Amino acid sequence: METDNCVRRIGIFGGSFDPVHQGHLIIAEMAREQFHLGKVFFVPAFTSPFKRATRAAGSQRLAMVKLAIAGQPAFQVSAVELEQPGPSYTYETAIYFRKQFPAARLFFLLGEDAFSELDRWYRVAQLCRLVTFLVAPRSRENFCLPRGLKVKYRRISSPLIDISATLIRQRCRQGKSVRYLVPDSVYLYLKKERLYGLGKNS
Q: Considering the domain 9-160, what is its CATH architecture?
């Protein structure tokens, strides 16, 4: 990844992306627009410290993100976590982007459920000094702030979209349609690779 010191506000969107879906893209676009982000980097995790192993391989998840974000030049994908086997820690990813963009302000995109559990994250106090968190709503109620942390955050004003990778994988296993839950290009990739049990005739 080339550095670009002219970009002053960088969004980092980490996750399993197993698979990437329309909810991810809507959140990223709303955050980009509202907070004037020059770039939003989607960063697929090798493995999450808080989740079971991914169903799709890292190369497949990377390919799906590339397909999903094609056509939006402000969106890019980074394989930095996939290139470091072992649990993917946001603190280390933030350090990587700080080195790539030393003059930029860093923002980290996440859902309010993950944000409320921020106190469990690796080296979270140091992470909170590196980034401002952009929090996507999961409900219309006020969410819980992480305990015992001095944290900079803003809420993303975005529609409440009840789409999850778990739902998509479940529907694939059941032979149900996932069209429109994922971008068309990702849907075709799922069929081609027969991911999550989705057959070519689904």
A: 3-Layer(aba) Sandwich (3.40)
